[in-house]
Amino acid sequence: MKNLKCVFLFVFAVAMTGCYHVTVTTGLSPGTTVIDNAFATSWIFGLVPPKTVEAASECPDGVAIVETEQSFVNGVVSILTFGIYTPWHIMVTCAASGSSSAAILYFEVSLAENATKDAVIGAFSIAADKAVRSGEPTYVRFE
Fold first, then answer.
1. Distance CA 12, CA 98 (A)
2. Beta strands in 6-106, from DSSP E residues, in sequence order
3. Which of 25, 27, 46, 102 qualifies as a FRET site for 63, CA 20 to 30 Å off?
């Protein structure tokens, strides 16, 4: 019976590391410069968010794509620390040279079709924030 509890606990822990992925596109053409932060520090299940990625110096023509995810490895680390340290993987793709900010037609937030409730709430929160700030439509797409 003790082994069954251990197996159940292990399966539960692995299941709780479900991947979370949100992609925000600005409508600008993606360039070749990518800022990749595989372990952006977040605390207490993400209640204390990671630092803002300062992309202005590396992306003089703006940002084309921002991806935020909690990968399997990030989830395992979060479980091992009981949610105290919750790392995120953040990737920012700079816009190609010559892209114009006038080309922004809409923002798109993508997440997995089987996303968790927290992931869906986070995606709609990001979409609403982008829509309010830009005044442009924002779409949430389930892949």
1. 49
2. 20-25, 30-40, 63-70, 88-95
3. 46
Per-residue pLDDT tens digits for 111-124? 777 778 887 788 78
pTM: 0.57
Angstrom distance (rounded) from CA 84 to CA 65: 29
Per-residue CA distances from 43 to 20, 47, 58, 85 (Å)? 16, 6, 27, 5
Give dist(CA 136, CA 107) in Å, integer.
Answer: 7
The H or E element containing residue 131 is helix 117-134
Q: Which helix (H) or strand (E) holds 141?
A: strand 138-142
Extents of the domains making up the chain: 18-142
